[in-house]
Amino acid sequence: MKHNLARTAGCQSRGFLCVHGAAAVEFAITAPLLVVLVLAIADYGFLMADSAALVGATRAGAEVAKAKPSVTGAQLTAFFPPGITPTVTSVCTCADNTWPNAAACPPGPLTTPCAGKTNPFVAGNPVDPRVFEYVQVTATQSVSPIVSYATFTSANSLNVNTTIRTQ
User: Fold this and answer.
1) How does strand 157-165 pair with strand 131-142?
2) Is 81 in contact with 54 (CB distance < 8 Å)?
């Protein structure tokens, strides 16, 4: 009986159930999950930072292209992270969001490629010959995750497109 009392007294100092080392086992089970969770959060943060930088660069490039329509993508590389060359294109539409196939964009000063087009966004669909000119800046950046996750696919590249009306 004395032997059992001594044994019980030793276990009471550590806890009622005598679970020596249980915390170490629980930590060994949860630690890998916590490490993967922290790395995934960091990976997502880097992806969002790259995305925000690319969006800001395309917006700045579109503003420059709006002010100077003859700018090229190579001239805009100063706004972008290293290794990225944007593309700059002019886009024209009529009021009904169509554009004749053979018409140049932007049209000449006396040409009216949208003659006879109606505006579906105004009551009564009136004739609206206006030409809407836009500049479009597009950029693509490749990304790689911190850790390769076996069961999840991650983005391989970020594609950003900014369009601004020029007139």
Assistant:
1) antiparallel
2) yes
Report the amino acid identity of residue 87.
T
Using DSSP, state whether 77 is helix, strand or coil: helix
- Residue among 103, 85, 83 nearest 93 (CA): 103
Decide: 65 and 135 in contact? Cβ < 8 Å.
yes
Q: 146 with 39: CB under 8 angstroms?
A: yes
Reduce the secondary structure of 2-36 to three states and give it as a string.
HHHHHHHHHHHHHCCCCCCCHHHHHHHHHHHHHHH
Note the pLDDT tens digit of each residue in 107-125: 777 788 888 888 888 888 8
Distance CA 150, CA 145 (A): 12
- The phi and psi torsions of 161 (rounded to 5 degrees) equal -135, 125
Residue entry with tokens 């009136």: 126
Which structure tokens are listed for 13? Answer: 């100092």
Task: Say what the pLDDT of residue 16 is.
Answer: 59
Token pair belonging to 166: 């020029």
Helices (H), 15-158: 22-67
pTM for the full predicted model: 0.72
